[in-house]
Amino acid sequence: MNILYIGDVMGQPGRKALAKVLPGLRISREIDVVIAQAENVSHGKGMSLKHYRELEESGVDGFSGGNHSFERPDTVKLVQDTNSTVVAPANVKGPLENNYKIIKNGVKKVAIVSLLGYTFPRGYNEDTINPLMCIDALLPKIQKNMPDAIIVNIHSDLSSEKVMMGHYLDGKVTATVGDHWHIPTADTRLLPKHTAHVTDVGMCGVLNSSLGVDVDVALRRWKGEQVKNVMAKEKELQFNAVLIGTAPGSLMADSIERIQYYL
Q1: Could you report the per-residue pLDDT of 201-212, keeping only the tens digit for each?
Q2: pLDDT one-digit tens code per residue, 37-88
């Protein structure tokens, strides 16, 4: 089975990059299931129902989440909808605690769960559960569904947390995929027990930007000016993802490959 995990889709430029690349890529690489990080889909803050439908039409089957997922009511409703394939971080106390979804494609089933970083949980300090303890509690529930693959997304500020999650879950899940920093890392690999891992997938959006934000605005903010973040204007685009392969009848990965396009 071939599973594509797409990095943070950053606003309208990210959606455009995805729509340009995904339909052809899905056919050429015989991709069975597509998952995209959705916390930045709508103007950088969560995902609206309109944009959810737009990305589904582009070929996305499931959606992971991050800290911004909680900031848009549409996203929360989608996570709560048992018929949708949208998740938010499962280790934040409240109505979305312990959420995960099963994506079905014919007879194939792929489980997706997102976890928020623990050291810097971005506004959820008192409500964030240790992600290791959260996934320990969730895995038995997920395994009862007998999925063909389990994809664990760790949405964290710290590369060390994302790397540790990979080693912690090595041999237990198909892949641990990190995101949040929008910059692809060069450590795409199979871990010793055949869990596929990447510390950061990268993003889909404007190439010459500061994580999707206008460079000049980001520099002014860095100098201390009180100016609002402004999304970068669309020029060159980028598309970043990883393609994870599994052998027939096995939960574990037998390959992981970085997919990158400059458009």
Answers
A1: 999 999 988 777
A2: 999 999 988 999 999 999 999 999 999 999 999 889 999 999 999 999 999 9
2-207+236-262: CATH superfamily: Metallo-dependent phosphatases (3.60.21.10)
Sequence-distant contacts of 245-251: CB under 8 A, at least 24 apart: 245/1, 245/2, 245/3, 246/1, 246/3, 246/148, 246/149, 246/174, 248/1, 251/147, 251/148, 251/149, 251/150, 251/173, 251/174
* Segments making up each domain of the chain, as ranges: 2-207+236-262
What is the pTM (predicted TM-score) of this model? 0.95
- Give the SS3 label for residue 106: coil
Residue ranges with strand state E in 47-183: 62-64, 101-105, 108-116, 149-155, 175-179
